[in-house]
Amino acid sequence: MALTLYYHPLSSFCWKTLIALYEADLPFEARLVNLGDPADRAAFQAVWPLAKFPVLRDDARGLTIPESTLIVAYLAQVYPAAASLVPADPDAARQACLLDRLFDSYIHHPFQQIVSERLRPAGHKDPYGVDQSRAKIGEGYDLLAPMVEGPWAMGEAFTLADCAALPALYYADYAVPLAPWPALVAYLERLKARPSIARVLTEAAPWFQYFPLKDG
Length: 216
Ligand SMILES: N[C@@H](CCC(=O)N[C@@H](CS)C(=O)NCC(=O)O)C(=O)O
Description:
Largest sheet: 4 strands, mixed
Low-confidence stretches: none
Bound molecules: glutathione
CATH architecture of the largest domain: Up-down Bundle
Oligomer: single chain
Helix content: 55-70%
Order of helices and strands: EHEHEEHHHHHH
Number of domains: 2
Strand content: 5-15%
CATH class of the largest domain: Mainly Alpha
Radius of gyration: 17 Å
Distance between the termini: 40 Å
Mean pLDDT: 96
Number of strands: 4
């Protein structure tokens, strides 16, 4: 198969790319990486030295593409079925990219910081850093709630921005509940009902027991 996605079903950044692949109904081999297994990690590092997933391998073109945003943009550029994920209009494309960056930078990354803190050993905790990350997520919600046009981030078209929004909002809701931002609550519900996203969540469900923040 030409496309291989190195991923893990629980990985939030992998969700962004899975949503895009499912939206476009593109065939690909899903290669689950167990970073806890030294041999699996070493094999993945041979593909991408940073050993961060997702990574897309396109054998037909001899390309290895890391970074979730870049993977979605690549799919949109190369596969007609995925083209609408990045709007053709340059201004709309820029806005979709901006929303992707905002969801990643102000919600997704601070959420990752909170999870990392949860995994730190006793004596190395950073409650001040967690407070800062929570505050940043709240600022992200404030910023993004009025920017989401509805039904999708960019209006009628489902784009890269929505692929980025789902993992960010779905997971951050555990750390900073979305309830005070009803527009984002409603948006997240619409996202969850979208078939591509419902499929990602169904596939992740057996792994949620390993999610460190599932108890809040
Ligand atoms: N900026 C990267 C972030 C990728 C990332 O942080 N991936 C996480 C999983 S969600 C990972 O590989 N974690 C494993 C590790 O850090 O060892 C992207 O957008 O793809």
